[in-house]
Amino acid sequence: MTVQSRVEFASATDTGVVRKFNEDSIATDSEIGLMMLADGMGGYMAGDVASALAISVVKEELAAALGNLESVENDAAKRYLPQTLAVKRAAEKANQMILRVARKNSQCQDMGTTLTLAVFHDDRISIAHVGDSRLYRLRYDRLEQLTMDHSLLQGQVEAGLIDSGDAKLSHNRNLVTRALGKEEKVEVDVREEGMLPGDLYLLCSDGLNDMVEDTDIELALCELKANLPLAANLLVQMANDNGGHDNVSVVLARVRAQSARRGLFERLFGWFRR
Questions:
Q1: If we measure between CA atoms, which residue out of 187, 184, 195 comes closest to residue 256?
Q2: d(Cα 23, Cα 206) in Å, to the nearest integer?
Q3: Can you tell me the distance from the alpha carbon of 123 to that of 180, in angstroms, rounded to the nearest whole number?
Q4: What is the pLDDT of residues 198-234, one digit of tens each?
Q5: What molecular function does GO assign, one term (predicted)?
């Protein structure tokens, strides 16, 4: 079964209630099983430039890299061209492009962007992550955060300097410690996860998770997982209803059942987890 028939995508983005410009950029590509989100920052209204560059470069790089991978007929050879390496290299290329544009244009100085993306392939999902835009997974109606924020606040929580329950009130919650376009070399977190039929994945900018509790996100996804466009629009509306202090963007992907046998395995596995 092809990626196009196995994974369904939907997305939504909004400026929010307070901001005048939307510096988020999002994209999906069903041909290569890609979903990605970038949250721009800095410069003279250039955050949108940084995020758009990141999306454009990564999409182009991955289309070429994964297209070459599909042309490799030997399964053993494919293991030496993993998707995780492709997503890492694509993020690094985007970092270099953003730096190059910033140096040539004074209005773009100090611009940068987060980047979180996922590529679906076989029974795996490859993830690349820089910054504090998040990737969640809803599996058996339980929401789990798959990425760790690269932020000053997260560092304080890990060091025990602040309680996770008080983190929402911190003035440091939007200060990122990693971003594309800030240094010559960027550290990109990459990993692979197994995926199951029925899994629902959510990419979001901090305009969602700063405004809406994870428990409410989980409830909305559980209720509307059969209608991804409606779920995406509802999450954006929930963020705006709670204040909409930032741009808010979401990208959703649902893995369809591949066969009756696989669907039976999913139900049995879910039953044993209860």
A1: 195
A2: 12
A3: 29
A4: 999 999 999 999 999 999 999 999 999 999 999 999 9
A5: protein serine/threonine phosphatase activity
| Percent over 90 (pLDDT), the chain | 71
CB 36 within 8 A of CB 203: yes
Edge to edge, the sheet with strand 7-14 lists 7-14, 248-255, 200-204, 134-139, 142-145
Say yes or no to pLDDT of 269 above 60.
Answer: no
Conformation bin of residue 62: beta by default, left when phi > 0, alpha when psi is -120 to 50: alpha
Burial class (CB in 10 A: 0-12, 13-18, 19+), 103: exposed
CATH of span 3-273: 3.60.40.10
CA distances from 63 to 217, 235, 246 (A): 31, 29, 31
Q: How many residues does the chain have?
A: 274
pTM for this structure? 0.86
